[in-house]
Fold this sequence. Notes:
The radius of gyration is 21 Å and the shape is globular. With 454 residues, the protein is an all-alpha fold. Helices cover 77% and strands 0% of the residues. The chain has helices at 9-41, 45-55, 59-71, 81-97, 106-138, 142-174, 181-206, 221-229, 232-263, 268-285, 287-291, 296-313, 322-336, 338-358, 363-391, 402-411, 414-425, 434-447. The protein contains 18 helices and no strands. Helix 9 packs parallel to helix 15, helix 10 (268-285) packs parallel to helix 13 (322-336) and helix 15 (363-391) runs antiparallel to helix 16. The protein has a single domain (9-208, 220-444), classed as Growth Hormone, Chain: A (Up-down Bundle). InterPro entries: MFS_2 (IPR039672), MFS_trans_sf (IPR036259), Na/Gal_symport (IPR001927). Pfam families: MFS_2.
Amino acid sequence: xxxxxxxxxxxxxxxxxxxxxxxxxxxxxxxxxxxxxxxxxxxxxxxxxxxxxxxxxxxxxxxxxxxxxxxxxxxxxxxxxxxxxxxxxxxxxxxxxxxxxxxxxxxxxxxxxxxxxxxxxxxxxxxxxxxxxxxxxxxxxxxxxxxxxxxxxxxxxxxxxxxxxxxxxxxxxxxxxxxxxxxxxxxxxxxxxxxxxxxxxxxxxxxxxxxxxxxxxxxxxxxxxxxxxxxxxxxxxxxxxxxxxxxxxxxxxxxxxxxxxxxxxxxxxxxxxxxxxxxxxxxxxxxxxxxxxxxxxxxxxxxxxxxxxxxxxxxxxxxxxxxxxxxxxxxxxxxxxxxxxxxxxxxxxxxxxxxxxxxxxxxxxxxxxxxxxxxxxxxxxxxxxxxxxxxxxxxxxxxxxxxxxxxxxxxxxxxxxxxxxxxxxxxxxxxxxxxxxxxxxxxxxxxxxxxxxx
Length: 454
């Protein structure tokens, strides 16, 4: 096989299946965990927000360590695939345990939530950082990487589509005639975790690592980190990831509250999630077309600005205008579709540029440090939602006061729209254009040793 590494349809689908699995976990947590903790498990919104914030401080240490160790892993299966295989089963089990509701005291419940949540996030890191880095060693061709990233995020948001479309229905079905919501959550999450584990294993079985590089005998952690944090491209992408995930976490964390207390019908959230995910998938399908015609940097600035305008629009939609909500969500989601595809291609490009410039193989370290920004954004956004609801006097399962309703509206409109806009504007300063990366790719192709296709 040539250095360009053309990938088969099965391998692209196999790789994408890993992010379908990831979103059966992560999107479920993102949409339902705060609501579950507050309205089902019985933890206050403020306590849950504090837990989200404090437990993520550990990621500052664990995420780069996972990236460094993954970059140095040597096995017959490659560097990154063993992590996906070995971590998938513990992750599935722990993800299920997060939604167990033991009949304990309030203090014991909070301790249980802290332990299970922290462990699940750690195991998610153990699997997802090597999984993300895997794209960079499956092929070195920029066009193939864009296609592979498109497959990944098509599967990723297909997972989000499934979560948004069927979770509420499954919870209601599994709750039984007695309306045992806790049981409904447990059985639904248990089903998701089994499917996710199987899909991670499928990813391991159908992918190959082809692009290799020498591994230094010395673990130069400080040098590798310095090579990143002094790189303007890394700084731009890190800050952009932080703001982007703040926008995602704030909005997703507030949407169920929005439909429950502002619109007045939580069941309408399912169709809202479904049509939004379908529009997002349509945007992903268009990514290859637009990425061949526009510089990725400029395209990202334009797309994020359009998303922000759509989010701002939600502030002005009355609660009885459900059709308008659906329409604005479809347009905004369509423009959002190509964004993660393009961003993850930039991550792989940045890893190649760093190797080309410094000689350091830091593919997983790139993704792990970006994961810090992503998780920090999720934590800040998720915590902001909880703290704002608590400060506004939110009371679980009760009609809300005007201040709480206003906070909920802001949390699905102006606040996430501002974060989305900032995430795009910072991309203006990203320096590595398509022309630069063509030179990098050609030079690296001469340096690298390639594992023969077998």
